[in-house]
Write a structure and sequence with these properties.
The chain is mostly helical and 434 residues long. It has one domain: Proton glutamate symport protein, CATH 1.10.3860. It is built from 20 helices and no strands. The radius of gyration is 22 Å and the shape is globular. It starts with a helix and ends in a 13-residue tail after the last helix.
Length: 434
């Protein structure tokens, strides 16, 4: 009975009405700058910590199980091929959306001298909010960091636990993938297997996540409200064009994602929206794609009945490597900086912006905070745009931008398995549920 009650509470806490109410309350408290919201920061940090503590054991079980399924299944190659095709199609769609909508917005809303003056004043005062130079120099303080490395060494997980604690998702993924492959090969050689025990550990992790999901409304408020309070509403008034272009592009991608999942799995909008909203809003609250892996797998496989093969194989890997939200953000920022100085982008320029932003997104793997924005520099400088001017602006918007980027990342990762695999064979959704 206790398990049933916990599951019921978890589902209640994750209902879209509860989630959206928590987001709305957090935004209101943040905009009003209610003094006590800053005391919620430790609560938000505790919530993220609780979720993070089971990510490593979950990855250590989920990815090897997915690798085993792919290596022992005769359809593994076909699944991978379809996934790669849809990754290319979806990434291209995101890039096109990020190019078209902002271009229209910036063309219709030309930057006047008053806006440029206010942006200049805001940049000048931004040092009071962020010490940009210190933040970028801090990782290099005290000599060379041999654990970070360069080139191939940058993805070698010399300390898997340190990699997870530093949110170094690429190193975690490399270790777990190698570990999973060797487990399958060892099973073939010795005939002994621990995959049954790993399924049990995976189930334990899912049960723990279900219990922590009860705290989702509290976590959302504690994570979002302090960020909004620090920024204030006047920031969006000054940077309205950038904020509107980014939000419009993100909303368009999110809507397209809902439609893609709905059509691919042959579900009604009323059925898909509340279910898909759960992992997306968890991503918005935590700002971490890795934390969303268990919720996303449960949502896609158990609730939306997506084909298990693509979900098991792609969702953990996609969450750690594919950054469509970052691609979108880098494109929009580049176009915005061009609009500030009146730079025109040709069709070839726009294609180059998309290509460079896509490549730069892979350079953000394993990075967080300001370090995750550093790969934007070569994109801007390719077109003669000032990265030094862009940094204070994007830092000001970063708390909200990171939330939206993670939402886009999670939504895209949900859509690709649905597009490539469709609904699980033989799985039917009761008419009443739809």
């Amino acid at each position: 009975m206790a398990g049933i009650s916990v599951l019921a509470l978890s589902r209640l806490a994750n209902k879209p009405a509860v989630t959206l109410s928590a987001v709305g309350l957090a935004l209101i408290l943040g905009v009003m700058r209610v003094p006590f919201v800053q005391y919620l920061r430790p609560v938000g940090d505790l919530y993220v910590g609780l979720l993070q503590m089971c990510v490593l054991p979950f990855l250590l079980t989920t990815i090897p199980l997915a690798v085993r399924s792919a290596m022992t299944s005769g359809t593994g190659g076909d699944v991978i091929r379809k996934l790669l095709i849809w990754v290319g199609i979806v990434t291209g769609g995101v890039a096109i959306t990020a190019l078209v909508l902002p271009t229209i917005i910036f063309h219709l809303s030309a930057v006047d001298e008053g806006t440029i003056a206010r942006i200049g004043a805001l940049v000048g005062n931004s040092a009071n909010l962020n010490d940009v130079a210190f933040s970028f120099a801090q990782p290099h303080a005290g000599g060379a960091d041999l654990t970070s490395g360069t080139g191939l060494l940058a993805i070698v997980p010399t300390n898997i636990f340190a990699a997870l604690s530093n949110n170094d998702s690429l190193r975690v993924l490399v270790f777990v993938a190698i570990f999973g492959i060797e487990m399958v090969l060892a099973e073939r050689q010795s005939g002994q297997s621990v995959f049954g025990a790993m399924r049990h550990i995976q189930l334990v992790c899912i049960r723990i996540f279900d219990r922590f999901n009860i705290l989702v409304p509290i976590g959302i408020i504690a994570l979002i409200a302090p960020r909004v309070a620090v920024m204030g509403s006047e920031v969006f008034a000054v940077l309205a064009m950038l904020a509107y272009a980014f939000l419009a592009s993100s909303v368009a991608v999110l809507i397209a994602t809902f439609v893609a999942v709905m059509v691919s799995l042959r579900h009604s909008p009323r059925f898909v929206f509340p279910i898909l909203l759960k992992p997306i809003m968890l991503g918005a609250a935590t700002g971490s794609s890795l934390i969303c892996i268990p919720q996303t797998l449960e949502t896609m496989k158990d609730e939306l009945k997506t084909s298990a093969g693509p979900c098991d194989l792609f969702i953990p890997v996609g969450m750690a490597t594919l950054r469509c939200g970052t691609i979108l953000y880098f494109i929009v920022v580049t176009l915005f900086m061009g609009a500030l100085i009146g730079r025109e982008f040709s069709v070839l320029d726009l294609a180059l912006v998309a290509a460079l932003s896509t490549m730069a997104s892979f350079a953000t793997l394993g990075a967080s905070g300001l370090a995750a924005l550093a790969p934007l520099a070569p994109v801007l400088r390719q077109f003669g745009l000032s990265y030094e001017l862009a940094v204070p602006l994007i830092i000001i918007l970063e708390p909200i931008a990171n939330m939206v980027r993670t939402m886009v990342n999670v939504a895209i990762i949900c859509a690709i398995p649905a597009l490539s695999g469709g609904r699980e064979a033989g799985m039917l959704i009761p008419v009443a549920a739809e």
